[in-house]
């Protein structure tokens, strides 16, 4: 069975199903004989079975109730109302929504054919029953199937957005790991060899052993300096370039993004750029935003960046990203603030200018 839609679409399905039972209910109540109560019982069984099938994903319950309703409902009511054809139409409409693959259409066609057979044995008019069943089924598919299809597309787009954010983070980590490996791999091998040689020469050639030990120390110091340079380069991010990159990424993800900024230099620019990365990741992964505004300003010796979107992101206490950002900025005299108002989420980062 397909994944059931969210609450709004689920409510639409309930309304459509109840609507298909209105005409059969009116029809059996117009039956002059006491048999109309069998018809009411059959409609009640079908209604309960659908609720169970939708909630518990047990399609066989709905199929069984639909078949049981034929002898209970079909014989009663005026012929011109084609009593059971509406139930067959409901089955034809909901089968494609509750099944997947080619079986959905086979089940829908089977429901229309079954409606014709019921009509032939009840009123000798199978054509009317089949036309009503086909029309009701097509209406249900049009009113509920299309929204479910669009909801599926939105879910796929959201999953793709999250995957793209994860891929970007993974690629950056891989790049940094590769750079560190290239820097340290050769140096550490040479240092190990130098230290081993110094140990072997310590007893026989102390002067050469000391020279080798000194060379190992020099190589270690040089490697440490190179790693620090690499880390500094990794952490130093150009703020204007990062703003443009974020704007492009959000636009590609279907989020309307506007950016306004003033020049910020030095460590403050680096810290804002790193915070902007985290803010962009939050918008992509934790929200359903359709627009995002990024504003950078300098005032009273402070650089202030405000990121606002309509995605209703997770509160700051629920994620590690904003918590880590807060701790990192606190070390350089900065601060982070978050605010939620209705569906609007605002992240504000302040660092010394």
Describe the fold and architecture:
The chain is 70% helix and 11% strand. With 353 residues, the protein is α+β, with helices and mostly antiparallel strands. β1, α9 and β2 form a beta-alpha-beta unit.
Give a quick rundown of the structure.
The chain is of the alpha+beta class. It contains ten helices and five strands; from the N terminus they run ααααααααβαββαββ.
- Give the integer mean of the pLDDT values: 80
SSE ordering: HHHHHHHHEHEEHEE
Strands across the major sheet, in which order? 1-2-3-5-4
Total count of strands: 5
Describe the main β-sheet briefly: 5 strands, mixed
Poorly predicted spans: 1-5
Distance between the termini: 57 Å
- Report the portion of residues in β strands: 5-15%
* Helix-strand category: alpha+beta
Detail the topology: elements first, then pairings:
Layout: H1 7-29, H2 36-56, H3 59-73, H4 85-98, H5 103-123, H6 126-201, H7 206-235, H8 239-252, E1 256-260, H9 266-286, E2 291-299, E3 302-309, H10 320-330, E4 335-341, E5 344-352
Parallel strand pairs: 1-2
Antiparallel strand pairs: 2-3, 3-5, 4-5
Helix pairs in contact: 1-2, 1-4, 1-6, 2-3, 4-5, 4-6, 5-6, 6-7, 6-9, 8-9, 9-10
Which characteristics define this entry?
353 residues; alpha+beta; 5-stranded mixed β-sheet; 10 helices; 11% strand; elongated
